[in-house]
Amino acid sequence: MAFYDATLRALGIGRVMEHPGAVAYGRDFPEFWVQTPVNGQPASAANGVHVAFLADSPDQVDAWYAAALDQGAAPEGPPGPRTEYGAGYYGAFVRDLDGQKIEAMHWDENAT
User: Fold this and answer.
1) Number of domains into which the chain is organized
2) What pTM does this model have?
3) 107 contacts: CB under 8 Å, gap ≥ 6
């Protein structure tokens, strides 16, 4: 959970609820849960799935990416525009400590 405490802080996201073996992160209410697997097995990466967190600015994306790498994440795509997703899309990708693909992204709806 220390990984998500440190990296989500860069996006203004923090712990909003805790249960034994589980932590909910969000801005005002639970938006994202991290927990030990219900089946008692080790965590494993989901193939073809990734989670994206909305950032308020490209600078927040950059800060999140730096925090993620500092916490031991593996880089999967440095911060930058992703025009294939849209003119106003700016994002970065990492693999967390369990191999899950996660992203921080900012969308400028005014971009053309």
Assistant:
1) 1
2) 0.88
3) 54, 86, 88, 89, 90
